[in-house]
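Help! Submission page says 'invalid entity' but I think these are all valid:
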Amino acid sequence: MNAEKRNFGRIALFGIGLIGSSLARIIRRDGLADHIAVAARTQASLDTAASLGLADLTSLDAAAAVQDADIIVICTPLSTYAPIIESIAPALKPGAIVTDVGSVKGSALRDLAPHIPDGVHLVPAHPVAGTEHSGPESGFPELFDGRWCILTPAPGTDEKAVETVADLWRACGSTIEMMEAEHHDQVMAMTSHIPHLIAYTIVGTATDLEQTLRNEVIKFSAGGFRDFTRIAASDPSMWRDVFICNQDAVLEMLQRFNEDLTALQRAIRWGEADTLYELFDRTREIRRGVIDAKQA
Amino acid sequence: MNAEKRNFGRIALFGIGLIGSSLARIIRRDGLADHIAVAARTQASLDTAASLGLADLTSLDAAAAVQDADIIVICTPLSTYAPIIESIAPALKPGAIVTDVGSVKGSALRDLAPHIPDGVHLVPAHPVAGTEHSGPESGFPELFDGRWCILTPAPGTDEKAVETVADLWRACGSTIEMMEAEHHDQVMAMTSHIPHLIAYTIVGTATDLEQTLRNEVIKFSAGGFRDFTRIAASDPSMWRDVFICNQDAVLEMLQRFNEDLTALQRAIRWGEADTLYELFDRTREIRRGVIDAKQA
């Protein structure tokens, strides 16, 4: 792992939420760039970015923000990728690198690649990090420390450009993993997207309970429910886009989950104690794997 | 809240796992009892309890353990309640209090009440606390600090006996809540049992993945899956019994959850972005409730 800090020239960030603002904080703190330009959809976000000292230039005009940028990092929800790249493509300078931080890589390639001009490089990335908080104020420079960052460049992508993006994330404290985009989306469907979907669902189910029962569910949430409410407090726009963009893999994994849940439901209905014990015992092994992999 | 420490006389504990051994540690540390007797199913558990200094007397013979006990606390899985109470009932002294720590209270009343001799009091209790670890070594005296303990005595239960059990849990740092057993089981189905069931299911689904994908799911588990593996590492015997004993409430809540998940699945399949956003936004309110209730 090459943790050497280098200067990445001029960096333009699209979106200044949890991920974008954490990245900006690190770039600022460690002097990783000569210039940070920030583009966002609302003036309020830009004002916050400016007041936090995270930007040398802020702009609602996407093309103006990428002027002369060496690296362009898209940190907005996945559904904005196509309009953003369309608007900035003509302003990109030769040799520039376009990257992103989105949780689905198949759709990132699909939406970005066709608009990348000749001589500009596309290196999609996914820092596997986050909290349930969103917005420019929620960022912090330790967010990526010791976390994975998965790069999914298409075959034939310029190696120097890939190495530059890898170096940027290494400078943020991440460990780099290379993966094929479709495979990335399968893995994330199971490790991240389905857990979030389930957490949103159960918290939604609780929301629909009669008032008295709902208040008690909140009061006694420490029994397990609490952890789900934290997960289900994540940014709604981001997650809406994740499920739309990773539809196939999510539906496939959800189908498997549903079958397993139905089997468990049946075991409970028929009082099949041994079936329940066997599953509950078997799942401990995965936990040991997580602990051994130092991800606990 | 009455935090005054009193002496509870002679206490007998059945089972010396996470809850039983945590309770024993507090009783020892704060001198809450003159004598602690520990009964368990295996000599190994008794030896551990003895070596940890948690027992004045250990015994595989249930009746011997309750000899002269003022308070008997059942800390074993729910399926053991009926055989335990049957074996100790003849040895209980007049005025003794039988209590438990089980997660389902309807079945606790059903299994214990018919065997309680005249002059002996039954005060079921549920300390809403735990970790994913089990066994005598996993206990610690801070486990119940600031956590709820729910008492579900049947109507007409001796008030002094109820107050004694409440005092014992207050002495352990808990806050007391009184509830009707059936209602308790409904609330816990949603706050604890369904979250555990879902966590077990998804970790089971991951366990069945092809080897390569499973290894990557473990490697990248920090995206959300990790939290589910922790929940799904809880004691399998305990949870098997919870689902069998709280069958009705669990199946009812599971049905609601299933309907909601199916609706969400349909929204993903048809790309209904607005439906997804609306749900993901709505669930944030419950999180705010959890934070306001200081349960976060």
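Support: the input was valid. A stray whitespace character was the problem, and the output above is from the cleaned input. The mean pLDDT of chain A is 94.
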